[in-house]
Amino acid sequence: xxxxxxxxxxxxxxxxxxxxxxxxxxxxxxxxxxxxxxxxxxxxxxxxxxxxxxxxxxxxxxxxxxxxxxxxxxxxxxxxxxxxxxxxxxxxxxxxxxxxxxxxxxxxxxxxxxxxxxxxxxxxxxxxxxxxxxxxxxxxxxxxxxxxxxxxxxxxxxxxxxxxxxxxxxxxxxxxxxxxxxxxxxxxxxxxxxxxxxxxxxxxxxxxxxxxxxxxxxxxxxxxxxxxxxxxxxxxxxxxxxxxxxxxxxxxxxxxxxxxxxxxxxxxxxxxxxxxxxxxxxxxxxxxxxxxxxxxxxxxxxxxxxxxxxxxxxxxxxxxxxxxxxxxxxxxxxxxxxxxxxx
Length: 343
Description:
- The chain is an alpha/beta fold.
- It has three domains: 9-59, 434 Repressor (Amino-terminal Domain) (Orthogonal Bundle); 64-169 and 304-333, Response regulator (Rossmann fold), CATH 3.40.50; 171-301, Response regulator (Rossmann fold, 3-Layer(aba) Sandwich).
- Helices cover 45% and strands 17% of the residues.
- The chain has 13 helices and twelve strands.
- It has a six-stranded parallel β-sheet with strand order 2-1-3-4-5-11, with helices on both faces. It has a six-stranded mixed β-sheet with strand order 7-6-8-9-10-12, sandwiched between helices.
- It starts with 8 loop residues before the first helix and ends in an 8-residue tail after the last strand.
């Protein structure tokens, strides 16, 4: 029996009295669907001979010129900057960008992934949260696979999940730039304020830190690498206090992001020390925070305009059926400000 023309996943959902996400779960044999709902959907799938191959057709027939974006925490300047540039790039291409903010809660991420299907967006961009884990939890992976079977999914970062496109910052190169700059200024005792290694970019930066230090023949004291539980200024503050309690303090500190760098600067000044007088400091993101502090903080710039354009470009290429690379790399740069000095 040939496929019934004109029938979409949304028609089946409407007739069955369920959400499009539920139809997706049934098509992919995912758990979490009540037996009676699963049976109604299967009956309609059989009635219309609607197969997973028909999903792409149904989506192409119902383009809405809307892209969904799921961010971990838009209060963080990194996510705010990236969203703004994605929104600008989408608008210039005739698309609307819809934002959901999850506070890195897996349950919310799964809910919003399903909501994106229900809202019938043309593609989804994921930035931060569970997608950044080196090994995402099973429920999230299943939800992501469900959505990736229906829609183009573009990740702002690296991901091991199949079916997703990646636009990633070269964090390793950014770390090399930071270490190279401090080493060129004569710093040998360089510390790193990191985050949990179960997050991909945290592991990538930490590994690059060790490699860059080794490349300069500089030892890394174990106590100079401080791992926090998140990316906030509070983690930077507490981590810097730990470094300040050492008998042999570092002369330079690299922070995982600008929020942590700002927290580190606050800890240093509260103890009566100065930057760059006694300590040099470098952050990552080059957000507005670096220019609100005294001194301004040197930082690795992610070139948000280019980054956002690349994310939207990849999404639209896939929406339009064009070939797009599975991984696109954005090269950062070091912006030197007032927080580093020569030894």
